[in-house]
Amino acid sequence: MPANGQNQWRERQIPQMQQLPRPLFARNESLVNAVGTPRHAHAWVQLSYAIRGVLHVHTAEGNFVAPPQRAIWISAGTEHEVFSSPHTEMRSLYLNEVPSSSGLRGCRVIEIDILTRELIRRFCELPVEYDEKGSDGRLAQVLLDQLLVAREVSLSLPLPSDPRLLRLCRGLQEAPDDSRTLLEWSQDLGASEKTLRRLFLRETGMTFRAWRQRLRLLGSLEALEQGQRVTQVALACGYDSTSAFIAAFRQHFGVTPGDFFSAVV
Q1: Is 154 a member of any domain?
Q2: pTM
Q3: Same domain, yes or no, for 22 and 133?
Q4: Do 186 and 111 fall within a single domain?
Q5: How many CA atoms lie within 13 A of 177 on its CB side?
Q6: Distance between CA atoms of 66 and 33, rounded to whole angstroms?
Q7: How many other CB atoms sit within 10 Å of the CB of residue 143?
């Protein structure tokens, strides 16, 4: 489930394919309900993108979030789960091969600019067995070129491997408004605050405070995209005031909550 405390998710079936019909293949889905897939892996790269709604991808390394204008790149062989918010318009791309020189590994969130967005929309209108040697094939190549140079954005949350820290992180994912300090957590986890602080930084590259703030901010995106009031979202995420939430949001994303979705078309 996404890192926002919600758990009303229906299971979505994974399409069974032995191979892709074309080197670049697209699937369109209109998902009325909040749905999620069981953990699985593909023999090909997957790009999860939604023109409407918020997507979450979970792997062993962390959680990745993609509101509109962003997409999640999932490398071949990476075990993952995909969750989507209600009323999501999803556009999945599958890539048979990616040049080794691209350096794209694992899972990451990338920016979808206007050109790439329109290329995806047009490509998703093509027949499954499009002409690879004609204009449709050239469109597919241009789209692939754009994806390979897309800018990575900070919409991911690394997860630790230490069982004690993982228990802490899972607890905060279930209840992002939990305001317990690391010292209070240490009493439940059987390790000193100093040990937890050191392990947290080593395994996630972030302090406990920074990790919890990113968890809350990423968890707020779905509610904001659905039009919930900023004050309501701020309190649900564990912030004492709307102004504190807006300040943290602006510091992390560079814009206010209202501006974050204003450019989505």
Answers
A1: no
A2: 0.85
A3: yes
A4: no
A5: 13
A6: 17
A7: 22
The reply to whether 2 falls in a domain is: no
Ordered alpha helix ranges (H), 53-192: 114-123, 135-148, 163-174, 182-189
Say if residue 32 is in the same domain as residue 100. yes
Categorize the per-residue pLDDT at 101 as very low, low, confident or very high, splitting at 50, 70 and 90.
low
- For residue 2, the SS3 value is coil
How many domains in the chain?
A: 2
- Are 130 and 166 in the same domain? no
Rg (CA), the chain: 19
Parent domain of 63: 10-148
**Which tokens belong to 81?**
């789960």
* 133-162 confidence digits (pLDDT tens): 999 999 999 999 999 999 999 899 999 999
Distance in angstroms (rounded) separating the CA atoms of residues 177 and 237:
5
pLDDT tens-digit profile of 22-71? 999 999 999 888 899 999 998 999 999 999 999 999 998 999 999 988 99
Q: Confirm whether 1 is domain-assigned.
A: no
**Packing angle, helices 135-148 and 114-123, rounded to 10:** 140
Looking at the chain, which runs of residues are DSSP E strands? Answer: 10-11, 24-31, 35-36, 45-52, 55-58, 62-66, 70-74, 81-84, 88-95, 107-111, 156-158
**Of 6, 9, 51, nearest in space to 175 by CA:** 6
Q: Are 101 and 190 in the same domain?
A: no
